[in-house]
Amino acid sequence: MSGGNGKSDGGAPPDHGDWRDGDRPRDPLDAVPDALDPPAWAGESPHDAIFTSPELWGGEAEVRDNAYGPPIPSRFPDIESVAGEVRELERRVRARLTPVFPLEVRRNPPLRSILRRYRQFAMRDRSAVVDEMGRDPVYASRFEPALDFLYRRYFRTRCQGVEHVPMAGRAILVANHSGALPYDALMLMRAVEREHPAHRQVRPLLEDEVFHFPYLGTFLNRLGGVRACPENAEKLLEEEQLVAVFPEGIQGIGKLYRERYRLQRFGRGGFVKLALRTGSPIIPVAVVGAEEATPMLAKITWLARLLGLPHLPVTPLFPLLGPAGLLPLPSKWLVRFGEPIDLGAQAGAGDAEDRLLVARLADSVRTKVQDMIGDLLSQRGSSAFT
What we know:
Layout (H helix, E strand, L loop, with lengths): L53 H4 L21 H19 L5 H5 L4 H11 L14 H6 L1 H11 L3 E3 L10 E5 L7 H13 L6 E5 L1 H4 L4 H8 L2 E2 L2 H9 L3 E4 L24 H9 L3 E7 L1 H4 L4 E3 L1 H6 L4 E3 L19 E4 L17 H26 L6
Parallel strand pairs: 1-9, 2-5, 2-6, 3-4, 3-5
Antiparallel strand pairs: 6-9, 7-8
Helix pairs in contact: 6-7, 11-14
């Protein structure tokens, strides 16, 4: 073995035992710079130190007196102080809501007679009492003469089986939908209110396309129409009212004249679910005459999409005569009310979620209405205007 060059013969590792003090460290870790305080190691190498030693990390920090300022006492507010703050807040709110002018000045405004006449003019078509569904009794009474003229003179409507409508209590009138405009809903309302011994009111459910149609939707809503949705229907039935539904929906008034009096699919049977949940009887209703009153020869869809409408009807008079072409033709109407159908004898409220059962019951009601329409057409004959 060579002496001072640190190499061994034959490539053997150097013998560290022969190193002299001061030449090289005995432990290779001793050559690593030590960031710790040497006295903390007590003469030991760093890898032998105990890292949980308090001498390594130091003891508990000492806080000098008044280092963080004077102590702040904390306590919950008492009831009297909270009540005083609430009273002050209420006083400030009332002060902001108080009108600028005193009540005496507002009770005697200038030009009182002119303001009174203006209010009377603004409320000429409105009522002070309007139900939560939007029906205005004053507005409806103003149009009774016009509806009576359509019902008795113009359409010469004949009503059959109105005694099947209950004298009181809830019921669902299921009718066919026909014609380019919903005149059938108005005539159905008028038939029950005029011919029924109790002169009951009917609340028809209107499709969104009709309910949100400009002017027409507002007009029907003030007369008693309600937007078609389960919540509105259930609320009306809970109030023991008569609800009229048109399960064909927008497809019913979108039929062409060549498809007249052929019932479309009755949706998903929503009226059946409604009857099962509320325990309401179903009264089938057939209306004949609306198809000839506003016969739709064709419909324009591309222009209707630009206007946000499902379709634009093409009738013998519209759009040839403009808005006047929407007036109905003087066809003869027949309205028949069938015997009540109690679905409670066939299913319960829990069966409203059974889609197969609901579809079967809806199809049975549809068949009943279709048979009633066939009977009325044979009764009326070939002429629809005499």
